[in-house]
Amino acid sequence: MASMPDVDLWGVPLAMLGGAIRVSTPFLFVSLGECLTERAGRVNLGLEGTLVLGAMTGYGAAYETGSAWLGVGAAALAGTLFGAVHGVVCRLPRVNDIATGIALMLLGIGLAFFFGKPYIQPVAPDLPAIPFGWWSESPQVRTALNVNVLFLAGCALAVALAWMFRATRIGLTIRVVGDSSDAARAMGVRTHTVRLLATAAGGALAGVGGAYLSLYYPGSWNEGISSGQGLMAVALVIFARWNPVRCLGAALLFGGAGALGPALQSVGITQGYHLFYAAPYVLTLGLLVATSSPTRALAGAPGELSISR
Amino acid sequence: MTAAAMHGAALSVLDGGLAAVRRRGEAVIIPVGALVAGLLAFAIFLAFIGRSPVEFYGLVYKAAFGSAFSWENTLARTAPLLLAALCTALPARLGMIMIGGEGAIVLGGVAAGVFAMSWPALPGALGIAGMAAAAALAGGIWIGAIGLVRHVRGVNETIASLLMAYVAVALMNHLVEGPFRDAGSLNKPSTAPLADGFRTGTIPGFDVHWGLAIGIAACVLCWILLERTSWGFAARIVGGNVRAAHVQGLPVGRLVVGFSVLAGSLAGIAGMVEVAAVHGAANASLAAGYGYTGILIAFLARHHMLAIIPVATLLAGFDAASGLVQRRMDLPDATVLVLQGMVFVSILAGEALHGRLTWLRGPARS
């Protein structure tokens, strides 16, 4: 019994580590999607809406088909569709991609709530997790190291995207389109098509992030499932300097901040928990203020990007 | 002057007038056309899921604009929307896309509620003025801070303002559930109920609260500020071309921060109106999404201060009809969100048509 305070003391960092892995997955997928989109020279603020729509579609499809993986597929499809709409609308002359993102964010959330009403009660199958904590006796360690498959897929994807940008023809094409439309056109690349495809693929990733929310953690569909994770992921890409591997690190950092509130609550600290839940937003704002600059474009920013000019 | 020359001069004046009418025509026809296209898209959506669009729009008309009672309901909802739309439209005229009005609204409401709790003995008029000042201060600081970091650090104001809105809602929940919670509010944590003298009543002869008059006055005053004063002129130059504004020696930073503060104060007052005229105390009902509808209104009105008034009334009407539509047609409450989203996308896509409607431009000059 004398060791009880120790367990409580360790509880917070352990819960935060486990929480960081659990909470970071949607951040990771949305930020990789946004990274891909922005590398092609476009901003998609609508990924918050795509995330919520993906959460609803994923949950609904998993419930109807009985397969969590079909749910993930449906969420990716919904995300692709939404990304494509963003891409098509932004293709039009004089259309502002930031404003379009806001509109699609509201539309995505609206559609998700509209079609999601019947899925608030029923229980859909969960995504599987791998128990990396099997060696430990402690239930806290076991919970913390229970890692979802999608998190691992996200890590692999981050590395794969980084390799793609650095070493493949597709990656080079996307980077050229993102850095200079003129140069891309001179090379004979169809910039509009590349941007459209990158935006649609980015939407698909955000949709998968949403499916993770509803199918694993928190693991149910409701209208409060995401409050700004998609948007924070967009800010996170700026902080990660448009580098997919750094997106992974940043997502873990944000996941840790997001896990602070629940971790403190799990050891019985409930005072001011609304403020702890606000920690990730404050962290994002702090990082934005610290890393932005009024006079020069950020290092690593794609040249055609409307938020870094 | 010969008759022919006079005729020619008259024609060219007429021609110039026509061109102006056409330019203005474009500014009206494109948004209205896009609005109609958005409503049509929503009609198709309804038909697709097996509901009657005719019944939907018929119900909306009846519930929002069909009778004196429904007009009063609509106009009461117009009030906060006018102020929320100004919170996006004013900064937009300086080239900023500020979408965090919701944050300023909820904090304005909390500030008003806390003011009323702290000085409950003040006479009515002074109390209401104090609540308005507290709300304007809270909202002004909130949005002004975003203008400041945008100017000083080059932070993207769109992302920052939305993040600040989430922080504001968390802060509101903390304040009304914690330090300022009224012990009497059991199910719904709130600040103490307002004393009667702090409640803003209805406009005489008209069953709509004073918020509507405040909102309309704010739109008109903002229009005068922008279009008829040198500050407004300077602000519009900043919005048109920041470099030119710098070269002209305009105080860009002060304009950016000043207009952000003004925008936030107005949204804060929207929160105060909700507390003083509708809810009677500050609580989570303040986060009703007015800030987000305000973004759409500002874009629909193309950030024109006076155009906000009819557009806000229209969208308030959809809001007001939402309950009846839900009950009669068995549609979820998110129906209005879908409608708003479709209209929003349609409006933005409509931007592509500017300068392209050749029939509006008239015959080409030789």
Compact summary:
The complex is a heterodimer of chains A (309) and B (366). Chain A is mostly helical and 309 residues long.
Description:
The complex is a heterodimer of chains A (309) and B (366). Chain A is mainly α and 309 residues long. Helix content of chain A is 71%, strand content 2%. Chain A has a two-stranded antiparallel ribbon. Chain A is globular, with a radius of gyration of 20 Å. Chain A starts with a helix and ends in an 18-residue tail after the last helix. The model of chain A is unreliable at 1-7 (pLDDT under 50). Chain B has helices spanning 3-48, 53-65, 68-92, 101-118, 124-153, 157-177, 211-228, 230-240, 242-247, 252-279, 290-300, 308-329, 335-350, 358-361. Chain B contains 14 helices and no strands. Chain B has one domain (31-349): ABC transporter involved in vitamin B12 uptake, BtuC, CATH 1.10.3470. In chain B, helix 4 runs antiparallel to helix 5 (124-153), helix 8 packs across helix 10 (252-279) and helix 11 packs across helix 12 (308-329). At the A-B interface, helix 4, helix 10, helix 12 and helix 13 of A face helix 5, helix 6, helix 11 and helix 13 of B.
